[in-house]
């Protein structure tokens, strides 16, 4: 993770990243499945419906945050499904599902868990970050960094970011990020320089 105090650099980075993802999203080489930790994966919808993807990774729990129901998941023995009926909109109450999803991931001892939405950019990364905060004790900044390192094109909408920040405040009584308005949308900023606990300066996250 790189920290910049110049928000303009952040805007340019995210705009370039968006252009890259738009041109590459149809390519098989783009990260369809990302390994977040030893038994936790994040993916797009197509990957979640692919029996070889699930079998190869030992997936026994699929969390569907695509907002779509009646999907044709592979008929693999022992496969469990959890549906999160939320659309990718800023005011959608995804936070209502943070605790349930985190608990199901933590309780899945029989194999790996795969969390997916449609593209694996907004809803599913948000749920994974909430899990990392609640069950792994990471701050939101740390959770974001961990997910981003494995899946560099994630982009939760501004409403989901605010819900994550509220969740972090409930869990830990403090916030590690704030949101900043830029030409490329609302982007997260670290509240203070991690190298100087006494600093009050804000730094934009550029990954």
TrEMBL record:
Coiled coil: none annotated. The keyword Hydrolase applies. Residues 95-152 form the Tyrosine specific protein phosphatases domain. Pfam families: DSPc. Keywords: Hydrolase, Protein phosphatase. CDD domains: DUSP14-like. GO terms for molecular function: phosphoprotein phosphatase activity. InterPro entries: Dual-sp_phosphatase_cat-dom, Dual_spec_Phospatases, Prot-tyrosine_phosphatase-like, Tyr_Pase_AS, Tyr_Pase_dom, TYR_PHOSPHATASE_DUAL_dom. SUPFAM superfamilies: (Phosphotyrosine protein) phosphatases II (SSF52799). SMART domains: DSPc (SM00195). The keyword Hydrolase applies. It comes from the Eukaryota. Residues 32-173 form the Tyrosine-protein phosphatase domain. Gene3D superfamilies: Protein tyrosine phosphatase superfamily. Belongs to the protein-tyrosine phosphatase family. Non-receptor class dual specificity subfamily. This is Protein-tyrosine-phosphatase. The gene is LOC101159168.
């Amino acid at each position: 993770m790189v920290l910049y105090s110049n928000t303009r650099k952040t805007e340019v980075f995210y705009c370039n990243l968006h252009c890259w993802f738009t041109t590459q999203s149809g390519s098989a080489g783009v990260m369809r499945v990302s390994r977040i930790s030893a038994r936790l994966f994040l993916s797009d919808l197509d990957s979640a419906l692919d029996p070889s993807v699930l079998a190869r990774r030992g997936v026994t729990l699929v969390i569907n945050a695509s907002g779509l129901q009646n999907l044709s998941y592979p008929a693999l023995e022992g496969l469990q499904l959890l549906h999160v009926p939320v659309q990718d909109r800023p005011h959608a109450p995804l936070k209502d599902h943070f605790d349930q999803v985190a608990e199901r991931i933590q309780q899945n001892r029989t194999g790996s868990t795969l969390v997916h939405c449609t593209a694996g950019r907004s809803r599913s990364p948000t749920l994974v970050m909430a899990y990392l905060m609640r069950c792994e004790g990471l701050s939101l900044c740390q959770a974001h960094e961990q997910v981003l390192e494995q899946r560099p094109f994630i982009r939760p909408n501004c409403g989901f970011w605010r819900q994550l920040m509220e969740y972090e405040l409930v869990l830990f009584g403090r916030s590690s990020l704030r949101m900043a308005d830029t030409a490329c949308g609302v982007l997260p900023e670290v509240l203070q320089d991690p190298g100087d606990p006494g600093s009050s300066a804000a730094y934009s996250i550029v990954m």
